[in-house]
Amino acid sequence: AVAARASSSSADPWVTLQADLSHPATAYLRQHVVGGRPVFPGAGYLEMAVAAVHVLRHGSGSDPAGGATALANVAIAAPFVVPNDAAEARVRDLRVRVNAASGELQ
Questions:
Q1: pLDDT tens figures, 14-37
Q2: Could you write out the three-class secondary structure of 89-102?
Q3: 3 and 94 Cβ atoms separated by less than 8 Å
Q4: Is the confidence at residue 2, as pLDDT, over 60?
């Protein structure tokens, strides 16, 4: 799992889940190589999307078990290349956003 934090505000309909790829626990991501480049795994995108929906429905401090989430029409337009080292990763965060009104994911 990737360490992530959630943010939202009453004025903004979007809930954002942000993964910090500079965290030492994410070093294993560089081992997922496709076409000679380390890329973020597709399952990771789905985990983050489900987590963002969970935060929207239940809040960030709630128990992660509780209810099923179905995703439909998921498309990953381009791979996210994982930074090669911690210095480069400091400026590289991966974000998933869900709109509270429409349910749209970005």
A1: 777 777 776 777 777 778 888 888
A2: HCCCEEEEEEECCC
A3: no
A4: no
Write the single-letter amino acid at 68: A
Q: What's the predicted TM-score (pTM) here?
A: 0.69
Q: 54, 82, 55, 83: which is closest to 69 by C-alpha?
A: 54
Angle (CA) 85-2-98 rounded to 5° is 115
Task: Look at the alpha carbons of 65, 29, 41, 52 in this order and tell me if their dihedral is positive or negative.
Answer: positive
Q: Which value, in Å, is the radius of gyration of the alpha carbons in the chain?
A: 14
Bridge partners of 41, per DSSP, are none
95: its two tokens: 């974000």
Written in H, E and C, the secondary structure of the chain is CCCEEEEEECCEEEEEEEEECCCHHHHHHHHCEECCEEECCHHHHHHHHHHHHHHHHHCCCCCCCCCCCCCCCCCCCCCCECCCCHHHHCCCEEEEEEECCCCCEC
